[in-house]
Amino acid sequence: VLERAFSVPSLIGSLLIIITFCRARGFRKPINRLIFYATFGNIMSNVAAIMADEFLYNPTEAGCKLQAFIIQMFMPADAYWSLVMALNVYLTIYHKYDAQRLQRVEVIYLFCCYGLPFIPALTFIFINDPARGMFYGPARLWCWVTPKWVVVAMATLHCPVWVAIVITFAIYFRAGGEILRVRSSLRSLSSRSQDSHQLDDNETAFPKTAEVVVPSAVLPHFHPRAPHSSTLHRPSVSSVTVSTRARQVETYEQKYVESSKQTCDIREIENATQQGRKGRRLRAASDTDTAVWSYVKCTLLFFTALLVTWIPTTLNRLIALVNGSNLAGLEILTAIVLPLQGFFNAVIYAYTSREEFKGIWRDIRTRLPSWE
Fold this sequence. Notes:
GPCR_Rhodpsn_7TM, two-stranded antiparallel ribbon, GPCR_2-like_7TM, transmembrane helix, 4 strands, 11 helices, Rhopdopsin 7-helix transmembrane proteins, globular, mainly alpha
């Protein structure tokens, strides 16, 4: 009953992932694409969980072997996809892979996560030892690996899962230090950039276009004669006499001032361009760091959900191996958490796509009739 009850929210979450990912382009982020691939394994695991103990007392029927095959092949898929997410973090940080290059290796990921487990899962269908009996058969909760083959089950399912978990943890541990170092460097650069901008603002507190006042001492002195008068007027910046030679002085002044203005403007443009380039580089690095950190947070959530799923399941198997019997509490916990893998993934998917879901909700609200 528990397996079926907790499979329902997982199936609903899995359908939500598939529908939104296929229908809306905004949901097709790199992390969401990996969750999308893992969803098919979750659905198959839920199908096996819904079958529950239907064939538990008829181990020779094809339904029992089918249920065991599905569990053996698809139940550990989340652990392998968690490792894939960690590998993407490693490739992004240490080998500078972009989204296009990561997408090109997804075919390899699909083969490793679903193709390789298919080989032993299919092989075990045909194992029937006279001493220990069939490999697939009653396993208390459902049809899976029989207790007499529990060592082989640990070696072929639980061990690969925990190897994947350990490698995933090691990658995050190493990458975490690098991410923190990069974030610290970016904060330091941002702080220095702000201080530099403040210093530049203090130094250029005057208007950007500098008006250069040229004193009359640096210009040649002319004493033009005003028309109909013998009075001489000394031209200056503030006093302009309308005459041919005065216009020459005025033109000289104007050219000198305009040249000075252009020189100042060019220098300011160059400084602004340099500051702009630095700012753009800093913003680009900051945006990249934010994107990587967001990706890492989501993969860590996926990894945490994986631990919640597989710690009680593995403990249950180990206790059965050592004592020859299972603890009732661990069995109940296993029956709850294993079918919930799809639900956990749907929650992570919703978190990474919260802005897209908000947009969908806004569209729905605008289309609903107003009751006012």
